[in-house]
Amino acid sequence: MNNSDELELASVQARIKAFVIDDILMTVLIIFVFWELFTKNNTTLEELLFIMNEFVYQIVFIKFVYHTFFIWYYGATLGKLFAKIKVIDNDNLGKVSFINAAFRSSARVVSEMLFYIGFILAFFNEGKRTFHDMLGRTVVVSA
Predict the structure, then answer these.
(1) Could you tell me if 60 and 110 are in contact, meaning their C-beta atoms sit under 8 angstroms apart?
(2) pTM > 0.85: yes or no
(3) Dist CA 24 CA 128 (whole Å)
(4) Of 96, 33, 102, nearest in space to 67 by CA
(5) How confident is the model at residue 1, as a pLDDT?
């Protein structure tokens, strides 16, 4: 990241807050989209898990679109807006391009699938960058 007196890296606490809010929003959206499947004939927990596994590609697609669009268009997801943080391009400290937002979103989904290992990287580098920040060539700063 280039040095800039105006920018402050987002705190880990703010990033966790944004993550939790985004995950809750995604869960509500997914329940809304698949509501009919969840509510049919007294579905058991085991059946719900089977349904979720059956539609994993659709769920991954919903998450991909959500993160790509909001990071590209607004520089922040709804959770990040609430936590008062934003994602910027690491090279020019400006708006993230659509391609970099898509790379970032793809890497984020992969990190989630691999037990959030990519998120842990933020604890071990100076820029607090996760795997998806590195791949998307982004940095998260206070808004």
Answers:
(1) no
(2) yes
(3) 23
(4) 102
(5) 47
